[in-house]
# Entry
Amino acid sequence: MSTKETDNGVRVAVDVGGTFTDVFVLDADGHTHVAKTPSTPDPMDGVLKGVAAAGVDWKDVTLFSHGTTIATNALITRKFPRAAMVITEGFRDVIEIRRGNRDDLWDTYKEIAPPYIGRRDRLVVKERINYAGDVLTPVDEVQARAVANVIRKRGIKTVAVCFANSYANPDNENRMRDILLEELPDLRVTTSSEVHPEIFEHERFSTTVANAVLSPIIAPYTEGLARELADRGYAGDVLLLHSGGGVMTAKMAEKFAARLAASGIAAGAIASREIASRCGFENSIGFDMGGTSTDVSLADRGELRITTEWYVEYGYPICFPSIEVLTIGAGGGSIAWIDDAGSLRNGPQSAGANPGPACYGSGSGLATNCDANLVLGRIGTQLVGGAMTLDVAAAEAAVVAIGGPLGLNAEDAALAIIQVANANMADAVRLISIRRGYDPRDFALVSFGGAGPLHGVALAKELAIPTVIVPPHPGVTSALGCLLVDVQHDITKMYLKSANEAEPAVVEEAFQELEASGRERLEHEGVTPEQMSFQRFIDMRYQGQWRAMSVRVGSSIVSMDEAIKEFHAEHGREHNYSREDAPVEIYRLSLRAIGTTPKPEMGRRAVIEGSTAEPFEYRNARYDELPDRVSTPVFNRDDLPPGFEIDGPVIIDQLDSTTVVPPGCRARVDEWMNIQITIEEV
Amino acid sequence: MANQETKAAYTLDPVTFEVLKNAFVNIVDQMAEQILRTCYSFVIYSRDFSSALCDPNGDTVMQGSGDIAAHVGTLHFTAKAVIDAFGDDINAGDVFVVNDPFAGGTHFNDTRVVRPIFYHGELLGFSQANGHWADVGGAVPGSFNIKALDHMGEGLRITPVRVWDKDRYLADVAHLIASNTRAPKDIIGDLQAQAEATRLAEREIQRLCDKYGVNIIRTAFSEVQDYVEQLTRARVKNLPDGEWETEDYIDQDPVLGEGLIPIKIRLKIEGDSIHYDLSGSHPTISTFLNAAFGGSFAAIVAGTKIQFPDLPLNSGFYRVVTLDWGPEGTVVNSVWPTPCAGFCSGPFEKIMNSVFELWASILPERAMACTFNLEYLLVGGRDKRIEGLPYFMWYDWMVGGWGGRNGKDGYGATGPVFGVQLGTQPFEGQERLAPVLTTGHELIQDSAGPGKWRGGLGAEKGGTLYSAERAVVSYCCDRERSVTWGLWGGLPSIPHGVWVNRGLENERYLGSIFSGEPIFEGDVFTRPSAGGGGIGDPLLRSVDDVLEDVIDEYVSIARAKTDYGVVVRETDADLCEYEIDHEATQATRISIAQDREGWLDVDAESIAQKYRDRELNEMDLVRQYGVILDWGSGELLPKTTEQFRTMLRRRSFDFWRNGMPTGARA
# Structure
């Protein structure tokens, strides 16, 4: 990883999403600026255009970091080159059999997605390794070469090699890979023992297959991007944000392509954690509400929650550790409707950009959250700095159509729509917070995305969260997440043993082996030894339980007691009880290898207490807290200096969002230009 | 139930109502998540559990959205059983346990932990966590004893019993329960996990009471039920009135000799109500494939719910969907002390698939043919790999093919209708825990029931026993004779049944229901899961779809011709190149259409002989000739064959002659 020693250049982060490409620039002097451009069919174009729109010269850039949905989109649209899979004879269909589950239990007309590699391209070879790693049958060389020949004839360029029990011994998979490369030197070969050396065939194979199909897409993209940027004068590495919340270099991305599958989702969570942390909140909930969906994440004591259960399509897990983000189908465009029993519902269907909410003047007549907010006066009739005018009459008509059967007038119906939407989102946040034993009163809610600041305070009140933070650029916050992360690799090893019987020295040795491979990966990326650090985790469970919990442990293991104690405590917090007398079992060891990137100071503005600003207009808006509309000052966010403080009700408009501060709340602009809203009654 | 249309309007405002309804869903799903993360029973971990909130009468307010199908419609019975048993002596901090199938439970393994929810001294309702404990004692590990004469041979019957008394844990009672099982520590672990899940629900309800007031919550408990009732009635009202009937079969009662065991089911839609009737079903049989009233009602509810997948489940639904079980003492209404641990493989599966068939006439857009039968195989003995020869259990259930649908092929290799989350266990985990080397886990070519839209494919899984002693194998399944059937002229799939050393000198066929058969080191056992039945005449399937299936080796070239009348030639398999002989295909299809009705009249014994001579295989027998044998010996089962042929004629002839029914997709 090459960054200039004396780092005083420009740092650029680009988050390429499905609709928009967000650019976040941090100058040498700590100033930030942002740009938002429509995403382009060729994501590389999007990066270049976005950075150009931000007015940055690549020659000045010292660090470029990039979140991308290219891998996610390839999996969603299934646009990837034909790939093959080589499997142990007898197990051709493991990835098609899956675990055999469906995500919708009752709707027998909802399809199960087919595997990423079809049956015709799944080829078998005789070989077998047992649970202990003994080779029962070596690779049948004749059959292996015949398989290579079929792959050649079909013109397939990427292959996943997935053998039984390879987590216990990779020899047969390695032999198969060597034979394939002897026969077809240009082939991309991904082995399951390298990508995800863990027990359970479907999860390992599925991760490997995702990696194999993405590798031919990611490799040329990262190579091409690196070349383009070099041509423009950028001398550093292209850093790619991966689902674990760190970055990796293009070289590693090519090898572990599937680690990018949740890249886009991770960025927002990381940004949220950073923003809260700078404001002094080590516990925070990220609430990123867009047009069609909302992403919720949680940081506890500065750490984002990690999950290894992640997928793009149900049934095909990608088991790399990923930041846990709960996505729900509720957004500004979610549609309100009345069901057959006359009950008011909200979402998950969304009007999207097309046809769009009723107020977009599209004639859709769909009553969305956006329409309800407009009817209530919480958003103005001018969007995006006047580029779009909203049609209040159309919004009212749509909302009245919903309220009519319930006996509600337009305003009460709008209020009802928003309250149902907020309650649904609060339920989702509860799942990731209270449900896990976290007390929301200890948290700050970071509210971003286009619609987040509109709903954030209501949600916080519902959840008894005392503080809401609205970052300076709510609509491009995710890109910031790409900027402030380290190089990170997550490496795991199965280690099934009773915690009492585990020899600390043996566990220590296993961790040292993991550290050696972590060090190797970081060195490969040019990380210097001084920049390296390692974090250790042990996954444990009560003997007899099926799920394990990850517990952080110190940097050298001399006794297992501390880890066991921590496990009881975590179990108690998350599940409300622990069994101190029950035996504990170790399931897995994991290591996070980190290559620290130099972090610049964000520009901190001088706070002048008692700063003032003038509203640009007054609007009659309706709040949940008051029975009637009240005249509300509306400010332009750009006019608000650090140190400015005001009591609600107040509305703050900006290009990419609107912040609503209801009555009974106080807003303050802090030194980072966040709006911090304190909810008094909590 | 009279005149529901004029029922009083809701008293809660629309926002409060919607918010609380969603909060109740959220609470039962939080219970599920907690159980999944803390359970000990691997059966619970495989999603064999359910959660509910009940009102003070025990009626269900909300049931978990991810609950296993086999438990739906039974949680109110067990809540009521607790109320009946304890009456006024129900206090805050109490927790009760019940698993009694004769009090509305399903089978002994499904153990329900019930906690009253109090708010400032007032009983508001109950939270209930139901989970399948891996073992509840009885004569055999896993508590599935097919030879049980009565329930005493199956496991521990827990009538409603108190295990926490005003927050005081009654360790002696818990100990008594746990000590009657094979894994007492795990049982205590599961009991605690379930009790904590119910406590979570209690806390959440109390939080809602704090926020909204207890009266609002009490009202919401009742109005959420009214809501589901009203929603369901609104749907049913739009359906035509009428009566429909069908029957399906359990394979046999070994004591009675060969012959299928009929389960009869009638459905009546009248106005906005749905009524089922199971009268006329066969008396209780000698194996444990009997259901008590809870298990049968669960099948009725689950089958009907599939027709209305978006409706939430609670007692409001059961006001619309009613059932007459018929007289006591039948396979669908068995009473104490009839063994009924196998209700899930027996009547439950038959009733649920029959419900699909009945509704195919009413809502053809959701039609589905028969799905493979729930099955599980247990190999147990002593593990010689480990010092001290500890017990091992290789306890395995399979996923299989679902029935073809109107306009779509069936799901391949998917969990049973019993509970679609009951997925496969990874063999890599099993190989660590038991001295069994998995021989394969793969889809079975040609296992899908042929049809215009074929069923999904079944799979095969088996293993070789090594380093073991004193090992036995047991199996609970069905449909080796009452083979997974097709609809609208679609064909059956393949029979279930376990083979040992198949194709080898010492081959043994063990059938689809047996227990305690000895098995030795070096023995290779295997069994298929059936594919789903096909829907619609297979001769109407598009030749291109057949070709694609041949390329993926879902269908063999030989059976493309036999089952679909499509003649395919291989050009270059390496390049996936095959071609259709259109002329030969047309001729073959005409000839099959002319002859196939007659094949069901061919002398069955001559067909059995051809099977024994290996000229015909079991697919030819069940699909083309409707002949059912003892698949091991090749001996003809004449009565079963006659019943099976009658069934095939009933499900096929009209559609072979007249094509697809009204409402079928092109």
Summary: Residues 18 and 39 of chain A are 7 Å apart (CA to CA).
